[in-house]
Design brief:
By secondary structure, the protein is mainly alpha-helical. It has 6 helices and no strands. α1 packs antiparallel against α2, α3 packs antiparallel against α4 and α4 runs antiparallel to α5.
């Protein structure tokens, strides 16, 4: 273990930085082709990044809105990857893109808003994630589309 809290290392910061590095690696992997094995690697890296971001939030006495936004951004990136794979016929095999957008909103951006209700980045992220979820749900004829759109409008109105 290279991190030591007795020497002043903040484990939540280490995990947040680790999550960011994994997210960066995932975006590089996916940039090299949707149909390749790299898309699977990107999915795995994003799942690990989301886990590290969630761990960072759990280790914080009061999570920073920026940490919550990072978690939301990573989950939204996972949703975008899943959406691209689903539209390309690759099939997700995991959570649907709409479910990942909803998770980005609730587990990321909305959590940040509970800490700082006026955080603009968290508010915009939550609104955008709910809007993206609603759009996908509507395309699939899912009943949840109206509720997701209502949440998006609520967050946009609060801005």
């Amino acid at each position: 273990a290279r991190s030591d809290s007795t020497r002043g290392d903040a484990l939540d910061s280490v995990l947040r930085d680790w999550a960011q590095a994994l997210w960066d690696a995932a975006s590089l992997a996916f940039a090299h082709g949707h149909a390749s094995a790299l898309a699977g690697s990107a999915k795995e890296l994003l799942a690990r990044a989301a886990s590290k971001a969630a761990d960072s939030i759990r280790l914080s006495a009061v999570p920073l809105p920026s940490s919550c936004c990072l978690a939301g951004d990573i989950l939204a990136a996972a949703a975008e990857l899943e959406r691209d794979l689903e539209s390309g016929g690759g099939g997700g095999g995991g959570e649907s893109a709409a479910a990942l957008y909803a998770k980005a909103a609730t587990d990321g951006y909305e959590r940040g808003l509970r800490v700082s209700a006026r955080d603009l980045r968290c508010g915009i992220g939550a609104a955008d994630a709910w809007l993206s979820a609603a759009r996908l749900q509507r395309q699939r004829g899912e009943a949840d589309a109206a509720a997701s759109l209502g949440k998006a409008i609520g967050f946009f109105d609060a801005l």
